[in-house]
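Our platform keeps sequence and structure together, in a single record for each protein. Such a record has a labelled line for the sequence and another for the backbone structure tokens. This encoding replaces a full spatial description with a residue-level series of whole-number codes. Below, we set out a record of this kind in full and without editing:
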Amino acid sequence: MEDDALQSYLESIVSPERLKRFDEVLKNRTNYITVVMEDVYHMHNVSAVIRSCEVFGIQNVHIVENEFAKHLDKKIALGAQKWVDFTTHETTMNCIKKLRSEDYSIIATTPHNNANTSRDYKITGKTALLFGTEKEGLSKLVMDEADGFLKIPMVGFTESLNVSVAAAIILQDLTHKLRSSTLNWKLSPEEKKLKKLEWTKKSIKNIDKIITRFLSDN
């Protein structure tokens, strides 16, 4: 009840138009597809992938830091980092184990191998899309552990795309399929409620002081 009271109070501070926008966005948010970036060391690419995830309604992003320390390029993400959740992993295997414990299929994106195209790929369950480094691609570990492979159909001389471009194309294809399916891909009512509270907090200046004052008065 205290959480409900706090949420009602905080929502009274935010404009009705912004709250309505939260509801509209949350209708299309999903955890059914998640994205994993394995050692993508160019920060503008990390940020651009995150921006694409936000645009196409992906709520959770995983970042593996086997070799490279990460920091988010906020200028390129253009605020997307406020609305997307991040989980960082020290090793690829830790990430894969975590995803498998949550019933995700591990799908490696690659221009090679006998892979499905993003247009032909059928979503049958929770899917983790893994993207690798700009030069080497995904690690051998991912390729060995993958439950499936995915590629973008290309007809030119170039064999690969920039990782941020590839992610945007694949996410557009797969999220369109997901929303056209009968799969239970949407956030639960409780997940939407918690996320709306989190976004409301992020929209209010001096939020810590406001919450402290509210709790002391109640």
